[in-house]
Amino acid sequence: MNFKNLVAAIAIGVGTLAAAVVAEAADKKVVVGYQTDALPSSVAIANGEFAKSTGYDIDFRRFNSGAEIFAAIASGDVQVGYVGSSPFAAAVSRGLEVKAFYLASISGIDEALVVRNGSGIESVNDLKGKKLAAAPVSTDHYQLLALIKSLGLTEKDVQVFAIPQPEIVASYNRGDIDGGFVWDPALTELKKNGKVLVTSKDVADKGAPTFSAWVATSKFAADNPQFLKSFAAVINKYYTSFASDKAAWGPDSDNAKSLAKLLGGTPDQQASALKNLTLLTPEVQASDAWLGGGEKAGAGRILKDTASFLKEQGKVSDVLANYGAFVTADALTGVSN
């Protein structure tokens, strides 16, 4: 090989290597949708630990609801997102292929129906004829409708407005609605001029449990299993810290300040909201009661029950035979407290 040919060969080799590096870098980009819920792991969004631990270039985008995130997933704009079980059930019933790989929380007191002072509502028996609101196809929307049904009422008896949370707060403050089923920061805002009438846990105990989860498109999950494991490990790191070191999550803590800067509100409000969460350890999540067990997965049963209710309400047209295929415990392997 003469000198010119050698130089040409080297140039081709360098070009091929560079192209491969660029291609690999492009493959390690992901768009992740999150919401305004107070979660310990959101600190890792603010400080960049998710990106550092996974080795991916992560574009975090904030949305007002799980329904918005699923719309973005359906369009191909988002690959991973934090969502509630009601929009989750609706999305997969309509054919979207996603998998839940980590449960962020389950029904607790972090979501609730708050009724306005002066609304004339003292108990659930006073809801007839009132105007209530919840974010469209959210877990709160689902539980509000389930609550109304459990009282023997329909949407003809109680006006239900499906509007985004910022609009709920504005309508509530104007006196246009009597109450809203919401999560933070809207929950904190509504309580300033009202009281909690029913919590998510109360509705769950009556037969309509919910959960919030991190989901990924089925294709992304299949192509990037290590990303999901690393992502889950980061979530668990912060959940473990929150469970074991309360002082590190108080109103004056750096963590609370970080959450307030990212999500809005004050550090005190974020610290207070965190106390309302009901969290599960990775070991419990991986059991058949939740993400494990394939078709027997408890989270899958919740999705099916939710879809059945949504069909009764005319929100979805079909209910699948089984929803176990939309949850997986694979990312929890090796993750423990």
Automatic annotation (TrEMBL):
It comes from the Bacteria. It is found in: Periplasm. Pfam families: NMT1 (PF09084). The keyword Glycosyltransferase does not apply. GO terms for cellular component: periplasmic space. Residues 1-25 form the signal peptide. SUPFAM superfamilies: Periplasmic binding protein-like II (SSF53850). GO terms for biological process: alkanesulfonate transmembrane transport. Residues 29-252 form the Solute-binding protein family 3/N-terminal domain. InterPro entries: Peri-bd_TauA, Solute-binding_3/MltF_N, SsuA/THI5. Keywords: Signal. NCBIfam families: taurine_ABC_bnd. Belongs to the bacterial solute-binding protein SsuA/TauA family. This is Taurine ABC transporter substrate-binding protein. It comes from Rhizobium pisi.
